[in-house]
Amino acid sequence: MTSVLRLPIAEHSHQLDSPEFAALLDTLSAEFAATAEQHDRDGSFPHKNFERLHELGLLGLTVPRALGGLGANLAQTTRVIAAVARGEPSTALVLTMQYLHHASGRGAKWPQHLLQRVNDETLRDGALINALRVEPELGTPARGGLPGTVARRTPEGWRISGRKIYSTGIPRLTWLAVWARSDDVEPLVGSWLVRRDTPGITINETWDHLGMRATGSHEVVFDDVLVPLDHAVDVSLAGAAPQLDASLLLWMSVLLAAIYDAVARNARDWLAGWLEERVPANLGAPLSSLPRFQEALGQLDAWLFSSRVILDAAANGAVPPSDAFRIKYLVTNTAIQVVEKAIELSGNPGLSRANPLERYYRDVLCSRIHTPQNDTILINSGRAAFAARAAAKKASPAGVAGISTITAKDAS
After folding, report:
1. Selection from 81, 97, 172 nearest residue 134 by Cα
2. Average pLDDT of span 194-216
3. Domains of the chain
4. pTM beyond cutoff 0.90
């Protein structure tokens, strides 16, 4: 395989939109797909996939161009994630975390030498970074609460102790953004930057999940891990209002949705091939010749078309960040629906370990556990809708109905 990225930085943005790059991504999908079943079977981490991505320069895809990276936009990044996920979705999930970190702009708050070091190691060595946030006692921090992981301030620096679970990509991470709290009377809460090879870090290989089995999301234990004082890179007083980057939330929703949309497309393609090849003796023709299955495949394609329209619109700036989580909700639930329908149509062959459809099903179900989860998305959406109605009623004596009537009259 020949990389099309061996060009001056100034040309990279254009090159990422070229037919040659699209062909490279198709080849990469096939290459990763060749080992996906084995990684799923034994839960092994796909190290060679990341070696290949580094060779192609793709681990620095969203590192800003001013810092030596490719500076890809959301549409370009989404295409890469979708292609990687068509081959091996666990690789795509770890890569998504990498891309979100470098696209976030969080590094602007960091000491310059740390920002430069992390970026240089990404581009030169293929270093990966991810946030370690979830803990056994607290669960996901998205539901509220303070971390149990504590950073003690000492004359030598911060000493961090605690335990993290679901640490996606830990077998290959170089840098860990560890969510913790300080031991101050008024504690600081946020991220401490820790290099994975720092003494005192233990990895317990606990990840043995139903799906996305190659993410290596093991437990990580920190025992008095020493980091310099300036490695408290993104912290604030406990209770301070979180500073959410709306554009980053849109990136997160689109890239996560693109992973599971890709899994669903794999399921669709497998079903189409199976329907063409399956010739029951009492029919004497492929199942694909029957109107029932033609209609069913058309339904799957219609569902996937709706997801593609949503993802393309969001990736190209046509969806406001305020609707970011609806994108995740709609696309991931559609992906599950597609794979479930494929299983229903194929019957026992679809659930056989001899075929990949059951693996696609196990993988696509994992879309439900990513933050924010479905209940949070819908509650917040409904709450916002009622708040908008209340504001409209307060602004207009005629109330919401009056506003609608006036608007309709004016329009006529």
Report:
1. 97
2. 98
3. 9-126 (1.10.540.10), 130-237 (2.40.110.10), 246-387 (1.20.140.10)
4. yes
